[in-house]
Amino acid sequence: MDINQFLLPESPVQEIQHPLLEQKKIKLAIKRDDLLHPIISGNKWRKLKYNLINMQTQGCDSFVTFGGAFSNHLYACAMACKAFNLKGHAIIRGPELDKRNPTIKMALACGMQLHTVDRKTYRQRHNPEYLASLQNQFPNSLIIPEGGTNQAALQGVMELAQSLPKSNYVVCATGSGGTLAGLAKGCTGNTQVIGVAVLKQADYLNHDIRQLLTTQHQGALWQLLTDFHYGGYGKFTDEVWTFCELMRQTFHLPLEPIYTGKMLFAIWQLISQDYFPKGSSITAIHTGGLQGLDGLKYRGLIPR
């Protein structure tokens, strides 16, 4: 595996023009990381990049990771297997494998090995004893956490932070906390990083993010907003989906309602409520995940 293949041109930045923004004197830009890589987009590429480099430098012949059946991380890992001719294993929250599910179908087509476990076993995915047993089962494999969040992932997200235009605020959707932590580590002290939690009861993520940053954190101030989950992880309201469609039609900005749609809708509401001072500049991170739309269509949650 040639490390030079990971040296990609930076994704573009899209400026949004809208009467609300003019009225509130706010500048809003979207970092289009959904366009970063042709098949492994957004924060999933950022997080995987240095994990895959570590896999090579440590002499591992495969990796093992974790995901739900519709997981963006699972999809990205499967695509990495295909693109870079890697061997990958995924522990899937089961108990059964639905081979009609578009994410599962793609993972299998990419040659990834999928291993279903029951929910009780899946909850052990952070348990050191369980991880040690997996290391015994796959002895020459690099174990990558669910969502790809670890210190190697932060390296990739810090590169994202350093590519951003100068802003007062940088905002991202937050699931496991890795993207928020990497942005906080990579942005300057003049920028405030805001994470929009996409799951219910997400206050525990504050602890996880602090653990990732360590006590020596010297980067940007950060905070996690936990009131914009719109029903919880994997759930969304009609209002969120209508907003996603409006953004696609008006600005040619494709969104899905699980991560980026919630995040940008939250920003829109906060701007309306004068949360951001007049004259503020905001950069919102489009973290990709558009493959999730196929899963939502498959489950009948959005129109085909």
TrEMBL record:
Cofactor: pyridoxal 5'-phosphate
Catalytic residues as annotated in Swiss-Prot or TrEMBL: 71 (nucleophile)
SUPFAM superfamilies for this protein: Tryptophan synthase beta subunit-like PLP-dependent enzymes
InterPro entries, sorted: ACCD_DCysDesulf, TrpB-like_PALP, TrpB-like_PALP_sf
Sites bearing N6-(pyridoxal phosphate)lysine, chain numbering: 44
Domain Tryptophan synthase beta chain-like PALP positions: 22-288
Gene Ontology MF, one: D-cysteine desulfhydrase activity
Keywords tagged on the record: Pyridoxal phosphate
Similarity section: Belongs to the ACC deaminase/D-cysteine desulfhydrase family.
Record-given protein name: 1-aminocyclopropane-1-carboxylate deaminase
Protein species of origin: Pseudoalteromonas phenolica
